[in-house]
Amino acid sequence: MNSTQLECFMQVAENLNFARAAEALHITQPSVTHQIHTLEAELNVKLFHRTTRSVSLTQAGLSFFADAKNILSLMKISKMRLHDDSTDKLSFFAMGLHSKMELSFLPDIIKEMKRQVPLLHPIIKMVPFHALANLLTDETIDVMFEFKNEKTDKLRLNYVELTKAPIACVLQKDHSLAGQPSVTPAELKDLSIVLCQPPVPVFSDISAFQQKEASNFSPANSYFSENIDEAYTLVKAGLGFSLLPDLMPSRDPELAYIPYDPSNEVSYGVYYKGKKKDPLLKLFIELTKNTFLQ
């Protein structure tokens, strides 16, 4: 994935017209079409509905719009860091996230980093797609939070485990099961389930576990979401329960987390590419570890 692909996507998405996008970018229309095709092939999703008369975004295209904007913003910041001499003394540190739930434990970490490194300029970017890992390999970001998975491991990045998160049944706080010490499949069989099935398998292990458990539920009693934030929203709306890793520092106070399968744990941590001896990276990892030990 490169900036040309993303700029073409943004222009077509904003204009809903390939000719106007080409005019805005000062390139030919076939070039725009080629960039969109290669981007769709890389993401393995269709971003636009195209007919001879109209162009419209698919659901995947709508979801990717904010991600593309974030990625382009990161690339611009990265270029600024390389070419602007006035930024030499500033300590930029870019953190990549997949969901809003991860934002909950970052303020205290950033606050302490800023106290120890006054010239710290933190950058937070949330990109649900697997493109986040590409940003890390390109060193556009310094670290990313993620559940350990084979696809990311193949990129030969470094990984620090923060916790082993057990699978919990996530329910509304006032649900009749919310006060129980644990819950069994038999107790959930008459409820509806909310599944987290992202278009790009970042959470492949979690999705596979959910799919296995969901085999006992009818389509009418199954709701689908593309990320954990959406799953939380559907649970809060009372549509059902979800089976998700229980990350203690990022628990939503409006929800109840009931142990479901303590033997099934998911590794959650930080991927990074640089050397752990880097002072800023070392400080970040140390503070983040302490957050998960509390």
Protein described:
With 294 residues, this protein is of the alpha/beta class. The chain has helices spanning 3-15, 18-25, 29-43, 59-83, 106-116, 131-137, 150-153, 185-188, 204-214, 228-236, 279-293, and strands at residues 48-50, 55-57, 91-97, 120-126, 143-147, 158-172, 193-196, 222-225, 242-245, 255-272. Helix 1 (3-15) crosses helix 2 (18-25), helix 2 (18-25) packs across helix 3 (29-43) and helix 5 crosses helix 11 (279-293). A hairpin with a 4-residue loop joins strand 1 (48-50) and strand 2. The chain is 41% helix and 24% strand. A six-stranded mixed sheet has the order 4-3-5-10-6-9, with helices on both faces. The radius of gyration is 21 Å and the shape is flat. The chain folds into three domains: 3-65, Arc Repressor Mutant, subunit A; 73-162 and 269-293, Periplasmic binding protein-like II (D-Maltodextrin-Binding Protein, domain 2, 3-Layer(aba) Sandwich), CATH 3.40.190; 163-268, 3-Layer(aba) Sandwich (D-Maltodextrin-Binding Protein, domain 2). The two termini are 38 Å apart. The longest helix has 25 residues, at 59-83. InterPro entries: LysR_HTH_N, LysR_subst-bd, WH-like_DNA-bd_sf, WH_DNA-bd_sf. Residues 1-58 form the HTH lysR-type domain. This is Hca operon transcriptional activator.
